[in-house]
Amino acid sequence: MYKRILLKLSGEAMAGEAGFGIDAARVAAIAAEIHEVARAGVEVGMVVGGGNFFRGLQAGPGNLDRVATDQMGMLATVINALALQAALEHCGAFTRVMSAIEMHQIAEPYIRRRAIRHLEKGRLVIFAAGTGSPYFSTDTAATLRAVEIKADLVAKATKVDGVYDKDPVVHPDAVRFERISYQDVLARNLAVMDSTAIAMCRENRLPILVFNLNVAGNILRMARREPIGTYIAE
Question: Which CATH number covers residue 180?
Answer without folding.
Answer: 3.40.1160.10
